[in-house]
Amino acid sequence: MEERVKFLAMVGAGAVLGSVATVAILKLLPRTVRKECLGEALQSNGLKNYSYPGKEHQGTPNPDLLTDEVVSEQLTRNIQFFGLESQEKVTRSYVVVIGLGGVGSHAASMLLRSGVGRLLLVDFDQVSVSSLNRHAVATREDVGTPKALCLKKHFLSIFPECHVDAKVTLYDSSSEDEILSGNPDFVLDCIDNIDTKVALLAACVRRGLKVLSATGAGARADPTRIRVADLRESTNDPLSRSVRHRLRKDYGIDGGIPVVFSLEKPKAKLLPFKAPSGEEENPSDYQIVPGFRVRIIPVLGTIPAIFGQIMASYVITQLAGFQVQMEPIVNFDMDHYRILHQRLVEHEELLYGTAMQVQVDVDEVMYIVKELWHGRSARDQSTNYVGRGMWRSVNELMLVRWDQTKPASVSNLVLLRFTEAGEHESQSLEDIQREEPEFFARVTSVLKRAKSDFGL
């Protein structure tokens, strides 16, 4: 009898402690989540008619979202990275993601996990079994579900405070206003159809919306060759080439759009289309949506996922106002940097009678040329020449001192064409500052970055 009393006492004490702990935890949760938890508990006990708010979100993001204890804890690593004020910019932002396959689903997922306050998810397609090798959240239970609704369902369990809207629709001229209205802070183009992609990018340019576009992620395997650059600089990518041509031809748009692309040449081609009989047939005869491919592009699932992660990282840092220097696309090899270093030495000997003031080696020349000046003259930072055009341009470039009274160091060298170098050395810095204040300020800012990078 005594043992039974002890046992009941222990059970009672455990129940009390459990109740106290549960109440304490619930008090830490946001009000909407707390109601959801209570509602689910009541439903599991037979109270089927209980309903709880918070499943559907409308309107603009809550500007005070980070004052919520659970939300601030969930985003604490971001807050530590950006600072509270910058993270608030992210939380107040509105981003549209169009195309929710391997690239778009991962981009949208990390935007959500990073605290973006409002998301619009757009895709007309459904989750298929073959989607599962690259989709961010889809499971076998989601097969047959529209991709937009699939993401929204999962997102509500990850960050329910986000205003998630899902549209199961195809982007085209008839849906443009519905999708792009509301003044989004960023639009992510994760579409793999050329006609739709070109129309979307042109609409964003026309509306003055910030847009980031993903190019071909299929048939690639090397994650180290993925880059972010202007559309004009993307190379080895057939999709980029077609988009550039169409934007220029149909809309007069010649660059100015950042894209995520791979420098790697595709490792495989579209698989031949075979009908159920096994015979090869015309894919166009089987299109559900005109203009969209039917044949399958071989895809290593990790690569589109990395594309999406890069897109999310780019957008989040932009929204937070956090400066990130993307690696420039420079098609030089070490021989080119050795040539530029030798030119610098010879020029110093010719001009000053000695090369003793040259304080950079070939590796530092590579940093100066690639990271600071992006392989272009300091007076011409446009992207008019890429690929082999850039490779040939090295024949007319040289490094010279910015301030002739100081040594040729990593923080005092500019890349100029031969003719520009002669003109530069005939002027004083005071003349340049007075006559070309914008150019002076830009070069000074770049060289200041070099000082910071090298701890000078």
UniProtKB/TrEMBL annotation:
SUPFAM superfamilies: Activating enzymes of the ubiquitin-like proteins. It is a multi-pass membrane protein. The chain crosses the membrane at residues 7-29. Its main location: mitochondrion. Catalyzes the ATP-dependent dehydration of threonylcarbamoyladenosine at position 37 (t(6)A37) to form cyclic t(6)A37 (ct(6)A37) in tRNAs that read codons beginning with adenine. Residues 76-334 form the THIF-type NAD/FAD binding fold domain. Belongs to the HesA/MoeB/ThiF family. This is THIF-type NAD/FAD binding fold domain-containing protein. InterPro entries: ThiF/MoeB/HesA, ThiF_NAD_FAD-bd, Ubiquitin-activating_enz. Keywords: ATP-binding, Ligase, Membrane, Mitochondrion, Mitochondrion outer membrane, Nucleotide-binding, Transmembrane, Transmembrane helix. It is found in: Mitochondrion membrane; Mitochondrion outer membrane. It comes from Cinchona calisaya. The keyword Methyltransferase does not apply. The keyword Iron does not apply. Pfam families: ThiF. One of its GO terms (cellular component) is mitochondrial outer membrane. GO terms for molecular function: ATP binding; ligase activity. The lineage of its organism: Eukaryota, Viridiplantae, Streptophyta, Embryophyta, Tracheophyta. It comes from the Eukaryota. CDD domains: YgdL_like.
